[in-house]
Amino acid sequence: MLKSRPSTALALVFLLLAWAAPVSAQQLSTGTERPWAKGVSQEKQKTALELFRAGNALLKESIFVQAAEKYRQALALWDHPAIHYNMALALLNLDQPVEVHEHLESAMRYGAAPLDSEKFENARAYKTLVEKQLSRVIITCDSPGASVSLDGRVLFVAPGRYEGLVRPGQHTLLATQEGHPTTDMSRTLLPGETTPLALKLYTTEELTRYRRHWAAWKPWALMGAGVAVALGGGALHLQSRSSYRDFDTQVASCGGCVPPQTVTDLRIRGDNLQRVALGTYALGGAAVITGAVLVYINRSQPYRINPGSAESESQAVNLAPLFGGRERGIQATFRF
């Protein structure tokens, strides 16, 4: 997969978010009355907040990998929007825009309640900016039982649909099922655009095409020409025999006299016509034999095309731009 560098707009967000202060321990509170705390025990909340605080300390020191790991551990205990938001801060600095988008969506899941309204709008703006740097794909497959994967990651078993964001660049789609040729499709995706892609499993018959060395009529035309030449030779042969008959008749009527030149010319003409007829037979026969051989060589030969080529034949890719939002970056705080 080809990776693209963040654009100037996204780089600006990185810079602004680098100054964002994580939630301090004094700002945290626990309880079960809030929707995002439903079903989470006090013990899990307490442990998650401790991990969250440790992640914040690492984030302040720009130790992003370890900070992200602390937030990941905290989210395993408590799926809190604020933790998702700080996770997005860490991942932005690790150049993981797809994961950043996922965590920003989770941070906005309950609206502005776990964040103040200003910070919620900031999260919306960050999310829009990230979307401009990524490509959105809509992948569908209606072939029952087909396993559909994108860049080696299984998305679903058909029939199904997947919609998500990926980095711009070249990506490979596969649809596989036992007993069917694998459908392999490669596409280069552009940032900020939506690309619908429909995959299909094909049978061997659907992927079979036929080709010849030459146009089908050419060997047959050569055979036909050979037959015509041979027929011409036959006509010359008949004329030769006619000349010989005329010669024999004239000699017989002469009664043993020396035949005049006109009679001798009949024999000479017959000899010449016979030689030409034999040559014509040889030429026509060679053409017929050659044409027959070429007809055999030129018989229709089956070959299989790549399923991706079949996809290209049957599918047009339409691109639709995503809508952008305003660009803002500001320090984040949270309300629990």
Give a nutshell description of this structure.
With 336 residues, the protein is α+β, with helices and mostly antiparallel strands. Helices cover 50% and strands 16% of the residues.
What does this entry look like structurally?
By secondary structure, the chain is of the alpha+beta class. 50% of the residues lie in helices and 16% in strands. The chain is built from nine helices and ten strands. It has three domains: 126 residues, Serine Threonine Protein Phosphatase 5, Tetratricopeptide repeat (Alpha Horseshoe), CATH 1.25.40; 84 residues, Immunoglobulin-like; 87 residues. The strands form three sheets. It has a four-stranded mixed β-sheet with strand order 4-1-7-10. Strands 3-2-5-6 form a four-stranded antiparallel β-sheet. It has a two-stranded antiparallel sheet with strand order 8-9. The N terminus and C terminus are likely disordered. InterPro entries: TPR-like_helical_dom_sf. This is Conserved uncharacterized protein. Keywords: Membrane, Signal, Transmembrane, Transmembrane helix.
Secondary structure: elements and pairs:
Elements: H1 8-17, H2 42-60, H3 64-77, H4 81-93, H5 97-107, H6 117-133, E1 135-141, E2 147-150, E3 153-157, E4 160-166, E5 169-176, E6 183-189, E7 193-199, E8 208-211, H7 217-254, H8 261-297, E9 301-304, H9 307-314, E10 320-321
Parallel strand pairs: 1-7
Antiparallel strand pairs: 1-4, 2-3, 2-5, 5-6, 7-10, 8-9
Helix pairs in contact: 2-3, 3-4, 4-5, 5-6, 7-8
Organism: Stigmatella aurantiaca (strain DW4/3-1)
Transmembrane segments: 220-238, 276-297
Keywords: Membrane, Signal, Transmembrane, Transmembrane helix
